Amino acid sequence: MNIDTLWNACLVGDRKAQFQLYQMLSGKMFGVCLRYAQDEAEAEDILQAGFIKVFTKGQLFENKGSLEGWIRRIMVNTAIEQHRSKKRYMTEPLLPDTPITASGINSDSNLHYQDLLSMVKQLPVGYRTVFNLYIIEGYSHKEIAEMLSISESNSKSQLSRARQWLKEKLEKLENVGL
Amino acid sequence: MNDKDLDKLFKEKLENISVSPRQDLWQKIEGQLDEKKTVRLGRFGWMRYAAVAVGSLGLAALLYTFFLNEDPAVEQKQLAYQGSTKTAVNPPLPEQPSAIEKSEVNSAAASQKNSTVGLSNHTEVAVQIVKKHVEPQLNMEMSSNELITLEPAALSVYSTPELSVETTTPQYAIEIAPIQPLIDDPEIEETMLASAQSSGEGIVPNILNKISDALNPSDSKSIQFSKDEEGSLRLDIFNSLVKNRNKKRR
To answer: Using CA atoms in the order B140, B145, B146, B147, what is the torsion angle rounded to 10 degrees?
Structure first.
């Protein structure tokens, strides 16, 4: 089935088509959600809310760019909204070092994505969001500042702190691995 | 490791990760989608009911104003008629007593007493007719005759334009029932008075009243506890609410 016809069926409210689209994209989108969430439960909440938005506000998608990109943006925005709704937790203290399951790795290239992901998850929510938006999604600091309603310099400093934090973690991991 | 390497590492490893979520998550999403649909339907249903309610209210209001307008219109017509007849009455004023006398002569055939009363104040027919109808209570035997004779008398008066006004007004006067007191029993009346509620207070209201008096001796009337026959406690706050409101606004 072509993705366009599938999407049109989704817009009409065809539950089967919606399920097909969900099956097609849920893995990738859950990956996106996991990067922004503190834990799996939060990621599931984001994914659920995101897909609800996709199916209820599907008519807002104006066939510019790929559908997948649009859905991905929705997931990211949903994640940011979730953080905003729980803003008081934005300043939560860093979790104590949870041991990263280094499964026989001795170099960067062998690092498994799970290790990196768990590192990202351990970042404070502010650092994590900026890091995700800038490094992985590729937004500019200006865009990030607008999305998070923070200043550009704040975005920059959060990113540099996130990098610093991750570097330290990676070095620790390498030491463990060696 | 510089920033670029770090960025590259994370971007490559994390950009396109695919992790399948829990199996039952779709059920949750589906459930929420169904819920939204029913909610939307429900909202429309509610709106329909609201529309019906508003419509019926509007209709009721329309009918109410319609009937309300109709009555004054009739009265106004009557008033206008009265006015026009009254102006017409003025020139043939001397005729009036004679016309009344005519009618009185007709009715006098039935009762002499009535005619004498009518003659004594011959300018006010309304009073006469009221009296005519009060009289049947006094002497029931004459009432039937009187009523029969009254009708031709009224008709004869009605034929003359001067008196048509006076014949319409008694219609209101006849229908008035004797005024009776709303409350027959003086005891009931007593309980309805505001000052009488202090009688028969229980122990608890008494204690509470004492406490409130002790706390605020300057105005003991502002808070009053009382108990009624059914045993429910009642708290009367007199001026405090107004003060509290000001305090809240502060």
So the answer is: 100
